[in-house]
């Protein structure tokens, strides 16, 4: 009845992987056709993203215009793309892989245009999943009733369910419930939770994704990764970076001055100490390249350096409307965040990338190791935690969030200009 009578009437079908396997096994028995080879037991088994795509197409041939194949039962290892069958580990608590290394893929197939859309989400270690399927279907229907495009309705509904899971309720025993009302108190940005401890940072990196990629994957950075960066460009960068660090330390000192609590003051002061230590390493590192402290101090600031550092200080000093010394502490944190977070991102990515040239074969390997080092990564974590704490305290409006986004985006673009300056020796 389901396959022969109901599915031909269906517009959007939303099975999870086990449900899709069951339907396709039954359908194959009826028609002896299907894209996925059967197991020895005569069953359909989905074990990869390609097989998810094949399964979605097979399901669409049964009648639905659109298939949303939910991937919660088939998490993938981000680094390798390898799928983990939930039947093999029983529950997420039995997994030996760290949760942050896993992601799930909800796959949308639109048979009207023969197109796929992949919705990737971090895999959550939680038991608060009771009612997810019903909630998702209801949310999609609600979005469609608002005249949303079908794909947009699915994306919005999926985001809603993911947030409901992250803010799930632990009630009694067994599977917990989703928090269907997580959005009733309107927040422009989610509060930090165990499953999403950095909602502001994640939001900024998502909304500024294009600029962030240009920054962290700049030609200068790629030249460091493979060792092909002209040494003259790197030496020019070292001189300018030391001058930048001086102002960067002042900016954090300004943050400590403007802080209203001892905890906030200490957070900024700790970063100042780290910058001071980093500057010593910088001097020693530069000496290996024949650049003395005197050389760095004697170098004129480039225009890209001046533009970036003064922008950061101005954001910290002045309020938009009053132009007084009441610049928001959160604004200052946003202006300095791209440097702190970006270098941590670059160091971590290049160090772990198998294509990075390593050791003596790469003259910039020590630079990569410096920003991958646990001391620097810890500084990044503290900086992000301070930024998230400031945002959660303010609970910014949507208008305020747009202002915050623009500060972060501008500072990111100034980082791109800094790389351009270094690469072209401007």
TrEMBL record:
InterPro entries attached to this UniProt entry? Haem_Oase-like_multi-hlx, PM/HMP-P_kinase-1, Ribokinase-like, Thiaminase-2/PQQC
Q: Which is one GO molecular function term here? A: hydroxymethylpyrimidine kinase activity
Q: Where is the Thiaminase-2/PQQC domain?
A: 211-423
Q: What CDD domains would the database entry show? A: TenA_C_ScTHI20-like
Give the CC-aspect GO terms: cytosol
* One GO process term, biological-process aspect: thiamine biosynthetic process
User: One of this protein's Pfam families, by short name?
Assistant: Phos_pyr_kin
Gene3D superfamilies noted in UniProt: 3.40.1190.20, Heme oxygenase-like (1.20.910.10)
Looking at the record's lineage, which domain of life comes first? Eukaryota
Ranges where the Pyridoxamine kinase/Phosphomethylpyrimidine kinase domain occurs: 2-178
Could you tell me which PANTHER family the record lists for this protein?
Answer: HYDROXYMETHYLPYRIMIDINE_PHOSPHOMETHYLPYRIMIDINE KINASE THI20-RELATED, PHOSPHOMETHYLPYRIMIDINE KINASE
**Protein name in UniProt:** Uncharacterized protein
User: Which species expresses this protein natively?
Assistant: Lunasporangiospora selenospora
């Amino acid at each position: 009845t389901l396959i022969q009578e109901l599915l031909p009437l269906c517009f959007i079908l939303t099975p999870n992987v086990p449900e899709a396997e069951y339907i396709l096994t039954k359908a194959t028995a009826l028609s002896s056709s299907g894209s996925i080879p059967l197991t020895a037991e005569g069953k359909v088994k989905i074990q990869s993203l390609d097989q998810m795509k094949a399964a979605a197409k097979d399901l669409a041939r049964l009648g639905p215009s659109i298939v949303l194949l939910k991937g919660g039962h088939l998490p993938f290892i981000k680094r390798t793309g390898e799928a983990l069958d939930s039947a093999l580990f029983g529950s997420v608590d039995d997994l030996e892989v760290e949760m942050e290394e896993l992601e799930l893929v909800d796959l949308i197939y639109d048979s009207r245009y023969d197109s796929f859309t992949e919705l990737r989400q971090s895999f959550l270690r939680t038991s608060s999943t009771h009612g997810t399927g019903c909630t998702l279907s209801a949310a999609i229907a609600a979005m469609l009733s608002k005249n949303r495009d079908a794909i947009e309705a699915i994306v919005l509904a999926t985001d809603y369910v993911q947030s409901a899971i992250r803010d799930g309720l632990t009630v009694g025993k067994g599977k917990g419930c989703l928090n269907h009302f997580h959005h009733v108190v309107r927040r422009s940005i989610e509060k930090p939770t165990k499953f999403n401890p950095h909602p502001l940072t994640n939001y900024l990196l998502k909304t500024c994704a294009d600029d962030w990629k240009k920054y962290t994957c700049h030609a200068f950075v790629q030249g460091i990764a493979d060792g092909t960066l002209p040494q003259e460009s790197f030496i020019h960068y070292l001189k300018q970076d030391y001058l930048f660090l001086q102002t960067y330390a002042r900016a954090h000192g300004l943050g400590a001055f403007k802080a209203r609590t001892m905890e906030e003051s200490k957070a900024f002061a700790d970063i100042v100490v780290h910058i001071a230590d980093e500057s010593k390493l910088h001097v020693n590192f530069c000496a290996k390249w024949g650049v003395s402290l005197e050389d760095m101090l004697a170098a004129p600031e480039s225009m890209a350096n001046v533009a970036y550092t003064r922008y950061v200080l101005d954001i910290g000093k002045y309020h938009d409307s009053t132009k007084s010394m009441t610049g928001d502490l959160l604004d200052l944190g946003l202006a300095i965040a791209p440097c702190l977070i970006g270098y941590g991102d670059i160091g971590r990515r290049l160090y772990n990338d198998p294509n990075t040239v390593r050791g003596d074969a790469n003259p910039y390997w020590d630079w990569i190791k410096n920003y991958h080092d646990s001391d620097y990564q810890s500084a990044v974590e503290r900086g992000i935690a301070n930024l998230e704490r400031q945002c959660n305290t303010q609970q910014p409006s949507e208008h305020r969030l747009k202002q915050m986004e623009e500060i972060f985006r501008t500072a990111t673009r100034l980082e791109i200009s800094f790389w351009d300056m270094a690469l072209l020796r401007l």
